[in-house]
Structures are given as C-alpha cells and as structure tokens.
Amino acid sequence: MNTTNPVSQDELKIILLAANEIIMYGGKGLLGKILAGSKDKRIYTGDLHLSPFYGSFADIKQKEIMEKVEWVMANGYLSADEKLSLLIYTDKGWNLIKDELAEVLYTDLSLAAEYGRYEYVQVILNQDPELKMDLLDLIEERKDKELIDTLMEWLELETFKPVPERIKEVVQGLTKEDSTAPQAQSGILSFAANKKWLAIPQDIRQMLVRNVFCGHCRGPVQIEKYVIKEFNDTVILEGKCKNCGNDVARVID
Fold it and tell me: In CATH terms, is domain 9-89 a member of 1.10.10.10?
C-alpha cells in the first residue's frame, strides 16, 4: 500500500464525495479540477461548478491536489476503467461514503423542493440504485412531507426496479393519517391526482400553492404540508395555512 502523502479523513471523504459528480464520466484530472475550483470549459459544460465540493481545495496548488487524488486511488478507494480511464468507486471507497452521499443528496433535494426546483430529480435519476434506496430511507425516517411533490416527479421518471415501488411506499407513508382512523384510507395520496397535478406547468403550480383562501386569515395564503387528492376527477390540495396553521384546501379546476 502506498503510504506517501497521506490525506486526512476529512480530505479523503471530500475527494470521494466530489468524485460522485463524474463517476464513469471523467478521470482523475477532471476530479482535480473540481477540487481546485478550475475555470476549465469542461467544468462549466458539465455544470460541475455547481457541485458542493467545487473549490474545496482551492487554497492549495494543483500539484498537491493531484498527489492527494493519486494517493486515494493508490490506496484502493477509487479506481478507473481500463478503456477510457473513467473513475469508478471501489467497494472500499463506496462503503466509506455512501451514507454521507445520501445525506448530501437529501440536503440538496430538500433545498430544491423548497424553491420548487423539481428538475433536481434529474440528478437523483443518475445516482446508484443503492444510493436512491438509502435516500428514500432518509426521507421516510424524517417524515419529510415537503418532498411529496418531488417524489411524485421522481416516480414519473424512475425506471430502475424496485425504486418506483419504494417511492410509492414512502409517499403513502408520508400522506397516511392515523391508521386507526376511519378516514385513513382516503388520506392516502392519489397517484392519479398527482399525475394531473404535475401535468400543470411548474410556474402555475407555484402560483396555485401561494394563492389558497384561508377562512381564519380571511385572505389568500400559501398552503403547506399539503396532500393531493382526487374527487370526481377534480384535483384537490388539502393542507395547512402557512400563516396560522389552520386547515385549508384548494380545488384545481
């Protein structure tokens, strides 16, 4: 094992997390440029400057960065395919950072959902299936109802089994009311209604969510923690007023 130029545990994780952006897309040179915060054209072409790890090692020389990357590869955390020298995780490297990768994806997904950036689902689609399942476990554990719309968008596009079924399980768990209550089954989110809801252009959906009448506030408010249901082929949003917390609903004609 190569023991020259060892990296700290934090540096090791940063290098491995940054590599996730270019697994089977780029080689060690491109990884070094991400870590350095390079202005190289390929960085911007691939939107790699948007990586949370872009420029993590900007305060050290490129040569030192590459020595660290080389050490990580020599010590069996990253490898490269023989034909194109594209980076791939080894089992050793993957097992070290897969949980942290799920946390990073969860944080970014939550932020994207907060700003209505459902296109972030495309990033999720490109992830390893095991990582997708870990991410869904996190969402389920944290009961994050704010991600329901994003999960439905993901469900529409996901093709790798058994991920779609797992998405459905998580969505149903997030939208289910007290299982002992008579109305519990009607409280489960309608996938058909969500399909209709997501067919509405994103900017109009955002306008509708921000324009729901609240009887307590006596005016238009933003609905939050809502579920999407269907009644007589009509889509209905049911949730809470962002201002006062009272129950509100919006019928989508």
Answer: yes
